[in-house]
Every structure is written in structure tokens, then in C-alpha cells.
Amino acid sequence: MNDGSYDGYGAARPILIGGCWQPATASEIFQACNPATGQKLPEIYPVSAWPDLEKALAESRRVCQEVASAPPEKIGRFLNTYADLLEKNQEAITTMAHLETALPLKSRLRSTEFPRMINQLRQAAAAVEERSWCQATIDTKLNIRSKYGPLGGTVVIFSPNNFPLAFNTVAGSDLASAVAAGNPVICKAHPGHPGTTRLMAESMLEALRQAELPASTVQLLYHFSAEDGFRLVSHLAVAAVAFTGSRAAGLRLKEAAEKAGKLFYGELSSVNPVFFLPGILKEKAEAVALELFSSCSLGCGQFCTKPGLIILFNDEAGRRFLWKLQQIFNQPLAGYLLSQAVLENLKKAVEKLKAAGAVLLAGGNQIPNCGFQFQTTLFAISGEQFLKDPGTFQQEAFGTLALAVVAEEVEEMLRIAENLEGNLTASIYSSDSDPQDEEIYRKLEPVLRLKVGRLLNNKMPTGVAVSPAMHHGGPFPATGHPGFTSVGIPAAFLRFAARHCYDNVREERLPEELRAKNPNGWMWRLVDGLWTQSDII
Amino acid sequence: MNDGSYDGYGAARPILIGGCWQPATASEIFQACNPATGQKLPEIYPVSAWPDLEKALAESRRVCQEVASAPPEKIGRFLNTYADLLEKNQEAITTMAHLETALPLKSRLRSTEFPRMINQLRQAAAAVEERSWCQATIDTKLNIRSKYGPLGGTVVIFSPNNFPLAFNTVAGSDLASAVAAGNPVICKAHPGHPGTTRLMAESMLEALRQAELPASTVQLLYHFSAEDGFRLVSHLAVAAVAFTGSRAAGLRLKEAAEKAGKLFYGELSSVNPVFFLPGILKEKAEAVALELFSSCSLGCGQFCTKPGLIILFNDEAGRRFLWKLQQIFNQPLAGYLLSQAVLENLKKAVEKLKAAGAVLLAGGNQIPNCGFQFQTTLFAISGEQFLKDPGTFQQEAFGTLALAVVAEEVEEMLRIAENLEGNLTASIYSSDSDPQDEEIYRKLEPVLRLKVGRLLNNKMPTGVAVSPAMHHGGPFPATGHPGFTSVGIPAAFLRFAARHCYDNVREERLPEELRAKNPNGWMWRLVDGLWTQSDII
């Protein structure tokens, strides 16, 4: 079956339902593609028909209560064991991920993304065992007690193409968060890296077994039709959906899910504007230009936090900076786009910007090659042009593509900021000592603050640290809800949690987190208005 | 204008836009009705056409950033001053509320609901000034800092008919929460109590003035068409919607809002099931029956937490309890329904239950009277019948109406619990000493836990204390998101907050809550994993 030939649906890899790898009820099949060669990879994967989804839903429903009741130690053990097993299979997994995504094997997959994934799983395990994430809140006088707990339904995860490991549907932040909060999960693989997902799911299943959690806690389907996706997310058994991907697909899923009363957490699009104030460009235009390019081209421009919009002034320092940027963007850079679809979308974005009157300063063409490659591309327009049609000029496209907006004056820069859609991030680069920069900052910051989740100073947005203080989210259309983050533990758990209140319930019937005795001696609880790690006396 | 006659739209009361009471662009007018007499009240109110909504939106947008930047002391002063001014006008407000709702003046409006409203505003003021609600989370090593902040858009509040004071659109928990989180608000009055709302809005405007907040921070419209409502909640300037009311209307608003990427917090419906285990009914059937009736008939059965579904066993104690209940429900009880619409809805619910085969044990008829009165009504059905069509038997209807479901055995009771929709609350009554009750509880609790926001033991659900540990919310369709509460401060604020992250931002540019020095010396912050009130050193 590994020779690349197609011999019927029977040749397709089995899906994971109810803890068993079983043949799919496939109506179609698909193969991943090596972006470096443009060639299909040999493994054949099924596009599941509805009966597969229905089976997975029934299984998920069957174990929902058992997963919800699992003690934190079991869930912690699962997450830690999973991390251990993945580490044992690191070579096979990263090799497969490299084949399927053409992301650099050593510098990216092995040294950066794999450790990040492992770290995330271990942080989630630690947070589950620590228990503070549930924000136990106790009113001893009224004997009312609340904590976060499971949703009581399935979480469906749709994962993106750009992080085959750290945001993989079966091992990423969404999976870790949904299970940590006590929910069963149905995962849809990204069709760009089914083999990577399959290898990881094998470790996942073994980890469930070792932790003695129900085998149906996490199930895996590789692909299904958009219509079956809508049917899935609106199903009775489902409580929430996590989606990271394109805005168009995300909005359709969002509508289907929310119409049925399901929670939808979507990471939909972001152009991550970076504002350059005059002082910093006077001081170090070249260093900043290199920093910007390095961030913009990271992962071949396929980060949700890629700085895609640059705002600067039409003054001498600004023009010199743009000139420098143009030179840097005009140098050839190796790197592959993740798929033909990403390439086509990038081409379209370039044509759209051209048609809208943006000036092409660098790149703009596909690199003739069997793999998916595109020149690093830089556009520019005036602030006036931007303000005439702000929507057109802030559409996300993967690839090393950026648009510089050149403002004539501070007022225009402020109006550009006011016309931004919701974004994951915004950065302001300013001098540490220039009073003019400080003055502009004071006007610009309050506008940007309300438009984005994370505001950075003199820093590019692409690094998203896994810290409890991180926020990876933002006002619509960046994400569906600006109060929730998909990165950062334990805050990411809260997307998949309901608030459980106990009113006049006696001690021995309460969950451990709400009893007089602190269950592990170190979890934080808010008791009568004071945060404490002590028992209640 | 107070003689009840209608002399053109000019006679209609002005609306509050941009801090000025101004004539509405009205296409229609309406009058409130005294539910005790069925007569229209003299004051005439406008049904605003779109230009009014547009003006309010423009004003709201204009002040959005200023409201977002207002220091906590100003917002706290507003909420406290508002409470003071309302207290000065207590007599006029409660008298008007009594006229418009026929709720008992002394026992309900003056002694209970008015103080609750005042208490809520003052608690909100204290929480804003205390600042802990923003959950400042600081990672000193990475210099990443996050807190909750304003949404950056307008909050639209649609308030219910049943609490003219404590959940009034201009003074209830939603208003206090939305303003506390730093958002401008557009309020739609409930057309059942426009006069009460008007009187309170006068105090509100004066409080804004005294606190030196923008006069457009809170604006008031009395009424508009459903279509204009959909247009309003999907408008660019709007960030979130708070709705408490009927499920049908709520779902339509939810769809319109969410399709446009707005947050929707709806309290939509709940039947608040109460389970009676055999032991407690053996011990004190009569006391418990009286307790149930008292809760069910509170506010004439017009509480969102009214116990509307009773589940018990077909054993001797159960049958005796039901017999007792039937006697109590058959006694005449004074009290008015809030409107003709509530009366009609109640009649429909009764007909529906009859048609579905439920047995009428008490009441069931309108009381012939000029006011809106209906008999206290009790139905019963078998567990088997319930399970054949669970949807029909758990539809919320205001009024003193309850449906008893009689289960034959524990398994059947569990299946009934499994077939419940999401609810705000569920109660379990059990004996403190009966081991059989305890055994059933252990099976029933995990099922109910995932279906409801608040789980009560031996307590009726109608009391919703304003405590930080309270949770008034639940899985869909009880509310739109089971992680958020509309009662309980400061948790209720979080519905109207975005997470604001600061990455590599220097000390003097940070909001006070995230700087090294604790801004007031007592706010709680999560610094490097530890909750503390100390400065960062």
C-alpha cells in the first residue's frame, strides 16, 4: 500500500474510533503532497462519510460523563505519558512532518516546534494536577461555591496547516486544553499532514491506555466534506468547536455551530500591523528592517502572527527604511509554501493588491519550480489610498508578503489605526528617548489597544510564548471571542469549561476543589474574597 | 399629556441620546399597561425608527475610547452616585414600578428588589475600585502581562419584563457590568415598564454628569422594531449584546449578532428541575411541598429560576407528596401576571401540556377579572410519557405552573435527567440520613452536574444571591455560554471584557494594574504563578 498506487478505498489508512483503528466509510480518498516536490506522498487517507462521524459522536457521547469525572491525576498522567511517547517517536514524527510540510527539519521541526509541543503537553499536565485553573470561588457564609468544570459535550477540533506538531489536531494546544478541562474530543486532521497526525495519534492512543482513560476520549478522522462538518458541529453531542484556519471556512463553521447553540472558538485571520514611529527609524532603520523581514518570512510567512501590514511616515527616515526593506525583500529566499492552495491564495492576494493600486516594490511572482515557491513580496500604498478601501488592504495571506502603508501625518496614521479590523497583535516601534515618538505613542496606543489582543513594543509578533500571561486571541475577525486565548496555559483551558456552582451542598458531596481541605495543599482558591492556598477553617 | 389621550407622536416621551432627552423619530407609539386593571397607563412612549438607533450608535462610537480610558475611580463614582440618587427617588420609582408591573409594592419592590438593585450597583462600584476583577497576570521573566479590559465597542442591553428594578436595562446587573468593564451602552427598555426605566435613567444621567463621564456612556431607547434590533446588534460599532427574555426572540437576536461576529449573552429559558428522592419525602413531605409552592409562585411564577419541573418516584411517599402538592396548588392565590402576552403564553403552555397528555391536577384556567390573573396550575405525567417527547414537557412558561414527572424506578429517573436540556439550575432534595437517597444521589448528580449551572441541595432555586461565588448561567439553551454568569460580581463583568496583553512594554506605558507597584495596595494579581497583593520587586 506504500507504493503510491491507488487500489480502492480499502487501501486507505484506518481512522481512530472508539479506541480502534478501523476502516473508514469512505466516499473519497486523498493523499498528502510534498511541498518541496509538488508530488503526492504514497499513503492513502480516507474522506469519511457521515456514518464515520456518527459513530465517533456516539462513542464520544458514551464516554462523556466518564471523562468528565476522571480525576486530575489521570488526565495529568495521560498528558505526561503522551509527551513521553511522542519523544520516543520524535524522529519518525518529525521526518514525516518534514515530508508533508517541507518545513526545515532541524531548525524548525526538531529544535523548535517539537519541543514546544512537548512543553505544552507537560505544562497542561502540571496545570491539571495543580488545579488552580478551575478558579475555585467559595463563599463560606452563604455556602455557595463555584469552579470551572467540563462542558458536558464533545469538543471538535479543526487544526491548521502551518504547525503540524504544536497545533496538530491530536497534540496541540486545543487538544491539551479540551482534555485538560475534562471533555471528550473528536479531531479532524489537517489534510496537509495526515501522516504526522497518524503517527502522533498512535502515541496518543497508547497514552490513553496507560492512563486508563476511556479509549474514546480522543478520536481521529482525517477528512470529511464541508456539509458533514456543519452537521458535525451542530450535533446534539457537541458542546464546542475549536477552529484554526481560513476566514471563509471558519465563518461558515461558526454560523453552523452557533446557530445550534454550540461554542465556537475560531482563529480566523490577522494581519498584525506594525507601526514604525519616526525616532526609531532615524536611530536604526537597517536593524529594524532586518528584524521585520526575519519575522515576516518566518516559516515562509505562514504564521498567524506574521507582520503583514507596516505603517510608517513619509519622511526621510521612513523613505530610507522602505528603501532598505525593498532591498531586503528583493533578495531571493529559500522556503516552501505548505500547499498548492496556499500558493494559489497568495497569487490571488498579489493580484488583488495590484488591482487595488498598490505598488509592487519587490517579488510578486511564483518561482518556477516543481515545489510550491513564491518570491518574497513587498507592496506599498499611501495612507490616503488605504483609507479609501481599508477592507481590501488588510486581507491575510500566507507567504512572505507585506504591505507598507505610508502616512503623511500623525492624524492619518491614527485614522489608519482606527480603520483596522480586529487583530491578534499590533506592534509599535518607537525610540526610547525621542519625545516626538512618545507623543505619537500616547495617541496611537489607546486606538490600537481596543483593536488587538497583544500589543507589542519594539518587538515582532511572531514569537508566541507559552506563558500564563500570554494572550493569543483578539477582537473579531481575529478570533470569535476576544476574552479567550488559544495559547497560554491554563487560560486556554477556559474555552472548554462551564462554570459549575454548588448551592447549599454538603461537604462530602462537593468536588475536592471546593471542600474545606485544599486537595493538594498548593492549589489557589478565592475564599471569601482572598486568594489562598490554605485549608478553610 | 398625562390624561391618557393620544395627540400624535409629539406627545411621546423623549428618548435619551448623547446625554440629551430628545424627541424620537417615532413611527409608532406605545403605552404600558397596569396588569392589575388591564388598563393602559397614560404616559406615551415612542417606538423609535432607525435614525434614532443610528444616532445612538454614532454617539456611542464617539465616546467609546474615552469610556474605555476612564479611571476606575470615575466609574466607581458613577455607580455609587447612581445608587445614591436612586435611593433619593425610591418612592417615585417603586410606585411607578408597582403601577407598571403590579408586583407587590412593599414586600417585593421596596423591601427586596430595590435594595438588591442598590446593592448590586454598590458592589460593582467596589469591585471596579478594587480592580482584582481584571485578573492581572504577570510574567516578570518574559515581561508579558495581561488583564481584562474594555471590548472597544458598544454593549446593547435588552432587559426582561420580570425585574423592573434589579434587571432594569438602565440599572441592572448587565448595565453595571458593562459600564464597570469600560464599555458604552445602548439600553432598550422593556416595554412593560418604560416609566420606571425613564425615572431611573434621569438619575443615571445625573450620575454620569457628577462623575464626569461622557454623557453618551449610557443611552436609552424605549422600543424599536425587531428588524431594527437585528440591524442594531450587527452594527460595526457594537461589540456585545446582553439579552434576557423569551427563547424565540433571543434566538433570532443571537443569530443576527453572532453572524456579524458580535458576542451574544442570552438568558433564554430554564425549567429548573427539582428532584425529590424517597427519603426526604418520607421525612417531611408537607414542609417540602410548601417550600416548593412558595418558590414556584414567587413573583407569580415569573422568575427565570422558577421550579417548573418536579421529578419524583411513584412510591407511597411520592404519591402522598403529590397529593399534598395538589391540595396546595388548588388553593386560590392572589397575584398578577406581568402582561397580556405572559397570560396568553401561559394559556398556550397549558393547552400544549393538555394536548400532550399531561393530567391537570390543579388550576388550568384564567381567572375572570379585569387584571391578568391565572389559577395556580399543576400537571402530572409518567416518566414514560415524558421520555417519549422530552422537548414538549420542558418548555418554560411564566406563571405559577409546574409539571410533576412521576418515575417508576431509579433508572427511569436517570433517563429523565439525561434527557433534560441545559438549565440554569437543578435541585436535589434528599434525606440527610437515608442511605438509599445517598445511593441515588451518587448516580443522579454526575448527570445533572453537566446539564446545569447551579446545583442545589435541599433548597429551591429562586434565591439568586449576589455573591462572587454565584453562577447564574448554564448550558444552552439556558444561556448562550455556560462559562459566564449574569449575576455575581465581579464575574458578571467578564462577559463584557476582552483580554489585553502587553508584550515587552515598558513600565510607564503599562496600565497601572500591570506595573510593579500595586495601584491601590490591595488588588489581587497573579505574579509568576502566585496570587499576591504585594508590589513586584
Automatic annotation (TrEMBL), chains A, B:
Start and end residues of each Aldehyde dehydrogenase domain: 21-435
- The domain of life is Bacteria
Q: Which SUPFAM superfamilies match?
A: ALDH-like (SSF53720)
Q: Recorded GO terms, molecular function?
A: oxidoreductase activity, acting on the aldehyde or oxo group of donors, NAD or NADP as acceptor
Which Pfam families does this chain map to? Aldedh
Signal peptide boundaries: none
What are the entry keywords? Answer: Oxidoreductase
Q: What is this protein called?
A: Ketoglutarate semialdehyde dehydrogenase
